[in-house]
Design goal:
β1 and β2 form a beta hairpin. The protein is an all-beta fold. The chain has a single domain, classed as SH3 type barrels, CATH 2.30.30.1060. The strands form two sheets. A five-stranded antiparallel beta sheet has the order 6-5-4-3-7, with no helix packed on it. A two-stranded antiparallel ribbon has the order 1-2. It is 0% helix and 47% strand.
Length: 75
C-alpha cells in the first residue's frame, strides 16, 4: 500500500470533484488528451502526476485543467 493511497490531496478537479492519491486524471497536453495518475512522491514531499511512460512531473499541479476519470474508491 502506498503512503497516502486513496487520501484526499486537498484539490478538486475542473468539475469540483475531490482528487485523491491514486486517481486517474485526464488533461489536454500538446494537442491531445492524456491520462495521468496522481501519486505521492515521498522524496519530494508532494503529490504529483505520473505520466503513462512513468515520468513523474515535479511541477506544481494545475487541478483546474484536470478531470478525474477513474476515482479511487473511498473506504
Amino acid at each position: 500500500m502506498k503512503l497516502f493511497e486513496g487520501q484526499f490531496i486537498g484539490m478538486t478537479d475542473m468539475n469540483g470533484k475531490p482528487m485523491h492519491e491514486g486517481d486517474s486524471v485526464k488533461l489536454y497536453h500538446k494537442g491531445e488528451f492524456v491520462i495521468c495518475k496522481i501519486i505521492y512522491v515521498a522524496e519530494w514531499g508532494m503529490f504529483c502526476l505520473q505520466w503513462p511512460d512513468g515520468y513523474k512531473n515535479k511541477f506544481p499541479m494545475n487541478p483546474e485543467k484536470y478531470e478525474v476519470v477513474n476515482p479511487t474508491p473511498i473506504g
